[in-house]
Amino acid sequence: MAMHEGHRDRMRSKLFANGEKLTDCEILEILLFDVISRKNTNPVAHDLLDSFGDLQGVFDASPRLLCTLTGIGPRTAEYIYLVGSIYRRMNAAPRARLRLFNAYDVSEHVRRRFASLTEERLEMYFTDEDGFVLYTKIVTGEDCSRVGIADRQLEYLLAEMFPYGILLAHNHPSGSVQPSEKDDESLRKIFRVCSAHGVAVRDCVICAGGELYSYYLSGRLESFRISR
Question: Where in the chain is CATH 1.10.150?
Fold first, then answer.
């Protein structure tokens, strides 16, 4: 069992480091770790591919048919079929991607996101060049002065996604919509990190009492670019 655990740790490290280079068999082998705990899953992965031809064939197979293979019980068959079902649903209709392309898009989205919040929150929207959101990072805190993101964490996210730009939005539930000195200070730090990675800070929006303040629309965003 210890040998299997060591092998599984190595395979998971391989997946984490560069999952795109895994073979179809390795992908199946790792997937089966979650449902086959005390057995080498590599032969089972090979049998699945030999029997159904490719990954699509494996995930299209019915649970009953999957159970005809040695080493595949009902729980494993259901798990494989469930993954296939998720894939089929994802491809059944066009993906509805969030796009924050202009100031109107941003203001409408921020109003919806923050309308009913009573706690402090920072949301960071990482976008591609066309404004499509790649990832939303949510940070919460007890008050506005504590809502932020560590430089190292932001650097990691930027290096992992290579976004074109980021948009920032946070709220002042019990205060004024006007930015505070701490808001400015936090924005300067984010500008410095993003600038080092060649990522544009597109706007920072504050929401309070149904009102919005935009650093971009107010003309103040440019001053942060100059002073970073």
Answer: 2-92
Cα(124)–Cα(68) distance, integer angstroms: 48
Phi-psi region of 205 (alpha: psi -120 to 50; beta: other; left: phi over 0): beta
Q: Give per-residue pLDDT as tens, 131-153.
A: 999 999 999 865 444 567 889 99
How far apart CA 63 and CA 61 sit, in angstroms, is: 7
Rounded distance, CA 76 to CA 34, Å?
A: 9
Residues lower than pLDDT 50 in the chain: 1-3, 143-145, 228
Q: pTM score, two decimals?
A: 0.77
**The CATH number of the domain covering residues in 2-92:** 1.10.150
Query: Rounded to whole angstroms, how far apart are CA atoms 47 and 53?
Result: 10
Residue range(s) occupied by CATH 3.40.140.10 in the chain: 103-227
The CATH label, of 3.40.50.2020, 3.30.497.10, 3.40.140.10, 1.20.58.340, for the domain at 103-227 is: 3.40.140.10
